[in-house]
Amino acid sequence: MKSRFPIHLVCLLVSQVLLISLPAQTSLSQRLDHQLRLGMQRTPTVMFSSPYERAEYFGREYNGEWKFEFNTGAAFDSNVAYDATGLNDYHWDYETSLGYEWWVSKALGVVITPSMGMEGSRFDKYRELDGDVLSAGLVLAILDKLPVDVEVGYLGGWGFSGGFGDQVLIQHDVSARFAKAIPLVSKADGTGDEDGPMLKWRLGGGHVFSDPSSDDQAHGDASLELSLPVDEQLSLVLGTGLSYLSYTDSSVGSREAWLFQAAAAIECRPLKHKDLFVAAGVGYTHRADNDSSSDYDQWLVSLSIRFEWEHLGFNLFKN
Fold first, then answer.
1. Angle, helix 5-15 to helix 25-36, in steps of 10 degrees
2. C-alpha dihedral over 227, 231, 233, 235, to 10 degrees?
3. How far is CA 233 from CA 54, 251, 258, 310, in A?
């Protein structure tokens, strides 16, 4: 299956460093919020796969595929602590993930994707902010059976500060989402051009269970993406998202927040037919919380390289 780069890229620009661990509990919680919010997950969703890809994967002898990805790059962050102090810094980020897309049944439209990953950041000035996160997820998607595609899933994050021996936060997100990809250009036969400009929307919500429980929260999320291929090697993507958070642990009282994010980026595949990508862009985040001390604005400018590897020649399941 070909790379669905807009999902990867929006994640890279808007939340590339949002999983890093901080000594301050509030900062780490907010960074994990970004991973779990807005429907912008680190791995690409099969809900945005094309009709050609679905026919290929549901119809082949082996209906499963390993997916490996590695991202690394440098970024400038205007608010590294995600608070009112407005501290800024440069940092290096990495992310690696492994998942397995099991295209279970065309008749049922079911795809199951377990995944795991590791990521983190290393700061230039504020080295006390260095941190890493281990993650794991499981998603069940139902395709082509309703006017929109559906997925339900679990995503967990384990945050570490100062090395993997110092775990400071755990969050588990159980969610459901609806999505649709809409081609903006039609082919001569009247079908949508899946390789042309594409509008993608996603709407959903869920609940985050945290340790400590003061970060437990219900959430509703919406995101919109516009991908504009320039040629076979160059693409532009614009993305925006909105999320509502309502904290459910009684120890924090009545507390709620809104998150808004937007990103613009350009991605180049320097070697044709090779899964190596160079991306550059900018993202903006605004949080409005009824606890005004948690309000913040943040800009992220990044330059990165991503490598993907598919079709590894080993499949778990055979029809």
1. 160
2. -20
3. 23, 52, 36, 19
Blockwise average pLDDT, block size 10, the chain, 319 residues: 37 33 42 46 72 84 81 91 87 90 91 90 87 89 94 90 79 92 80 82 91 86 90 88 88 85 89 84 89 86 89 53
Encoded tokens for 64: 């499963």
Q: Exposed e or buried b for every residue in 25-36, given b needs 16+ CB within 10 A?
A: ebbbbbbbbbbb
> 10 Å Cβ neighbour count for 190?
6
The Cα-based distances of 134 to 9, 21, 103, 268, 317 in angstroms read 20, 11, 26, 28, 26
Q: Is 128 helix (H, G, I), strand (E, B) or coil?
A: helix
CB-CB contact of 170 with 209 (8 Å): no
In the numeric block, the tokens 């279970």 are attached to 104
Distance CA(61)–CA(249), nearest Å, equals: 48
Both tokens assigned to 254: 């009545």
Q: Interior CA angle at 85 toward 79 and 91, to 5°?
A: 30
CA distance 7 to 14: 11
Q: How far apart are CA 319 and CA 203, in angstroms?
A: 33
Do you find a cis peptide bond into 114, omega within 30 degrees of 0? no
- DSSP label at residue 55: H
Look at the block and give the residue holding tokens 């795991």.
116
* N-terminal to C-terminal alpha carbon distance within the chain: 19
Query: How confident is the model at residue 256, as a pLDDT?
Result: 92
Contact (Cβ atoms closer than 8 angstroms) between residue 225 and residue 199: yes
Q: Is the pTM of this model over 0.85?
A: no
Amino acid at 125: K
